């Protein structure tokens, strides 16, 4: 990897780590479910108007939007609204990586290597450590909600991967079939969550609460930071961050690019410490180190290169049978699954 591309990887990690500060700024003004719907709605409208729909099965696109969009952000924003520290949230979401490996093994009968099993055990030990610390010093509910958000992200990873595989197979099947980019799939995923999440907000938060908060965002003291946070999430966290990540994934194997994602919680925790004064306990930091170590351990190992029949989710790249695939959308990335054997798909 060139020094320029290393700098791009560090830049993406910086953008995504600071994304959690933007989320916190938005939640200080908007109700959580409405804010989650709003951040997708802002992207979905131009996507519907200007971006062609990807040629993938609707069921996988819907499940991708439900898992990654609705479930992940409903629980994440709810957790942060309920008191989950900003930096710790950026760390706990890394648990989506071992969750995705487990879901792939259970639902798709993916082979899990011994190295991945060790990584999962270490990451789970880290989650237990953080849970024990949260139970001793604060409410356990925000942590559990964040873990539910990570599970939603894992479900979205599975659906995104299957959609990409189906799109690649459609391309191979006929000369007129168009090749689908992961970026287009990610953009169309944002079309799924807005209406269900607006309905959820209307039921749980009130039909006018969110819209009233949007109306006062230009006049209240906490409204302007919330709007700036929304712009950051959309423009820098999602479009710029995911776009740059896709570029890197098109140039290098996933195993080379994906470790940069482990810098995201480092940036998130440091930024939250500096800007918000959140000081994680030593036990939480130890648990976080175990989570990152487990994810990194499960992501590395020997691999055999294969060609275009494979279908990585994070971007068009050469990947490896049994090696990691990187999924990266909206400010976070996870090394999640062995590349599928085309004969089994």
UniProtKB/TrEMBL annotation:
Q: Which SUPFAM superfamilies match?
A: Multidrug resistance efflux transporter EmrE (SSF103481)
Membrane topology type, per the record? Answer: Multi-pass membrane protein
Pfam families registered for this protein in UniProt: EamA (PF00892)
Protein origin, superkingdom = Bacteria
Compartments annotated for it: namely: Membrane
Per UniProt, residues of the EamA domain are 7-130, 143-296
Q: Which UniProt keywords apply?
A: Membrane, Transmembrane, Transmembrane helix
Regions crossing the membrane: 7-27, 33-51, 60-81, 87-108, 115-132, 138-159, 185-204, 224-245, 257-276
Question: Cross-referenced PANTHER family, in alphabetical order?
Answer: AMINO-ACID METABOLITE EFFLUX PUMP-RELATED, INNER MEMBRANE TRANSPORTER
Q: Give the family this protein belongs to, as stated in its UniProt record.
A: Belongs to the EamA transporter family.
Designated name of the protein: EamA family transporter
